[in-house]
Amino acid sequence: MKQGSRFRSILKWINHYFVFFLLVAFVITCCTMLFVTILSYSLDITLSRANISAAAKITFWNVALLSLIFTMIDGMRRKRTVERPVKHITDAAEKLIQGDFSVRVQPQSKWGTDETFNRVIDCFNQIAEELGSVETLRTDFIANVSHEMKTPLAVIQNYGTLLQTPGLSEEKRLEYAKGVTEGARRMADMMTNMLKLNRLEHQQIYPEVTEFDLGEQICDCLLQYENVWEQADIDLETHIAEGVKVRADAELLSHVWSNLFSNAFKFTPSGGKVTVTLTEAPHHAIVQVADTGCGMTPEVGAHIFEKFYQGDPSRSVQGNGLGLALVKRVVDILQGEIAVESAAGKGSTFTVKIRRV
Length: 357
What we know:
By secondary structure, the chain is an alpha+beta fold. It is built from nine helices and seven strands. The relative contact order is 0.07.
């Protein structure tokens, strides 16, 4: 392998030498003939065959020497300006192929180097960075899914084992069966949200835009949680403007309200308050969902729309960190806006803006 590479390098060097030889020979021959012709006419000198033969030999060796010098200079130039940066890029590319996404190529010096290589290096570094980010996301995704599945699986396993206890009372049997059902429900919800989020992120779900009354949709979604707020003794306050029409995908938008309402009731303690407001702006319908729950710190709020992110580990049993990521993706697809204002211990307010008719 090395001998073949060395042989190709020698052939390349010989090829470069002959290129320079022919070029120098042509230039010197033309210049010499022009010079000698003008000189002989001007001074009326007659050149003999011996004089021409001697001059030709000297010129030939002069051409050979100059060609050798030019070849060496060009070889050093190519090694510095072409071969070295190409080797750095190919070495980094081989590491990238092997899975080392941390590899980066240092930009070449602007002196004596083609600036085109630096543009190639910038593109290569960006590709490596993006591949590294994708690999990190993939690894984190697998780790998060595995972690999230452990809890409901452990619950199902534990309650399933308890159900096999001899002489179990009817009350305990129902309690343990309910635990198994709840664990299975959590897994089913997580898988459903993962599939929805995956389809949304890969744009396999395309909005079916229709015109509908947003206030009616919000009220319908709220009624689905009537038992939740009544059993938790949560005060629900609504301020729904009438006749607010929007053009959007009603089914997708219902996921937004369902997740926001679910979170508001979930994190609001007994005796707390949830407020839902719908108002009109010149070009948008503005929906606010406010609660008096645990709230969150600015650090948590900065990551709240990321997949599997759960700011309060003590409450992680209540969710899987996919709901708000799903909400954010739906709002983005519908070309809307979503923001959150929150303070630890004081509750949170989510604001969604949807283009209105």
